[in-house]
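Final report, closing paragraph on structural work. Over the funding period we assembled a curated collection of sequence-structure pairs, and we close with a single example.
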Amino acid sequence: MARGLAVFNQSCATGYCHGLKGVSGGAPRLANRGFDAAYITQVVRSGIAGTGMPAFGTTLERADLAAVVAYVGSLNGIAPAALPNLADRGMPRRQLPPEAAKGRALFFDATRAFGRCSTCHQVDGTGIAVADPIAKVPENVAALRAIASPHMVTATAEGSTFPALVLSKGAVQVKLYDLTTPPPVYRIFASSEVKLGSASNWSHNAAMAAYNDADLESILAYLHAVVNPEKP
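Its predicted structure, as stored:
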């Protein structure tokens, strides 16, 4: 249950998805809905097509998937089944060097609220995949702070202009994340009701304000260990 709560807080309780303890956020309430175990398992594993609910069955380790299903079940009055130790499943949590382990804790640090990296990034199957997967890790903190955000554009809709990350643009609908304030807000507009302009002046460095340089050094150690393990 403790592991299920941790996974839920890192990947689901983000404000624009579900709230803490299963209250409503941008997505519906999960607590006290009368869901049964089979339904919870299916939705967590496969997601819900046409919504912002992703499929976690291919991103979470099996033990973490079982743990978060048990946690959501407990929010609906379902007594959790006894879960084997992670090692018993042959799927222990990834072992990291001390500096990288510190970086992992910082990356998912819930005390930083929406200022944590995992508000927008998913790593090792945990977090929220707002941004594209991290494929290339910056070499140092200066490079991380200076990283460009070429996919950010300026959008205008409903009388306001805001920085946006466009997910899809079709003849009928435009789906995007509004980055006016954290956390990013998932919005859908009719194509005729939104105008997408030039590159935005949105800054990734500003989004990292909750971290100092020492924190970011540790986070880079974590990313190098997980995303580019062949590098030191």
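The chain has three domains: 2-93, 104-148+214-232, 152-202. Residues 152-202 form one domain. We thank the funder for supporting this effort.
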